[in-house]
Amino acid sequence: MVDLSRVIVTGGEGMIGQALPFGLKLARRELDVTRPAEVAAVVRERKPSAIVHLAALDLRGAEADPRQAYAVNVLGSYELARAARTAGIPLLFLSSGAVFGGGEGAVHDEGARPAPVNVYGQTKWVAEILLRETLDDLLVVRTGWVFGGHQAHHRKFVDVAIGRARAGEPIRATTDQWGSPTSAADLCAELERLLVAGERGLVHVANDGAACGVDIAREIVAATGSPSVVEPVRGAELPNPGPARPVSEVLTSTRVRLRPWREALRAYALG
Known about the structure:
Layout: E1 7-10, H1 15-19, E2 24-26, H2 36-46, E3 50-53, H3 59-64, H4 66-87, E4 91-96, H5 119-134, E5 138-143, E6 145-147, H6 157-167, E7 171-174, E8 178-179, E9 181-183, H7 184-197, E10 201-205, E11 211-212, H8 213-224, E12 230-233, H9 261-269
Parallel strand pairs: 1-2, 1-3, 3-4, 4-5, 5-10, 6-9, 7-12
Antiparallel strand pairs: 8-11
Helix pairs in contact: 2-4, 4-5, 6-8, 8-9
């Protein structure tokens, strides 16, 4: 049985880490996963009941520095798996729908074949493979476009859109990139349930349904009663489009069902 008060959470300073309602949340200055000796020492000294591994270089950071992305997202994950194996404890690894390279209309369950199109997705997929070869006591959770909670590095589209809606300003939103909007609160509640239940293997955790940026923006406008106009654009037309992304990162699951994304988004927009 996992003692939630003794769970180590890497990347504890990030959005999901801050939203997680349990665990010892360690920021990078407290646990740098790229330092093997430090990883081993922290696990040995803290004697955790489990590890929840959230630390990662994100989409833009990974594209800007692929070497560091592999150091953090792949090798750092491997060192944590080795430490968990030595300690005889489970590891929950948070992965992403970015491991897929789906075309228009694609929906990915746990049996879908990954085909990442950017560095971030590649590192997450390689990490998944390496962890499965290293540790049996493992749960890999892939999630979608997470919103809500503390913004560690930059404001997410959902928060930008809510701000513009409340100000009555136009909202530019994409029509050609699809994903699974996912509430940080819903994700964290499910992570806790899965960990306590002792689940292992691979599971997708995302709010139900698919959306593009326009769908998200229109839902926010409707929820807030805003006069804002939603301006549809293609991803390439944005001022700073960022790394290549698959047309569809939409997730579904054979193991987990969360509430519809529209319901979760409305709750957040009105909260």
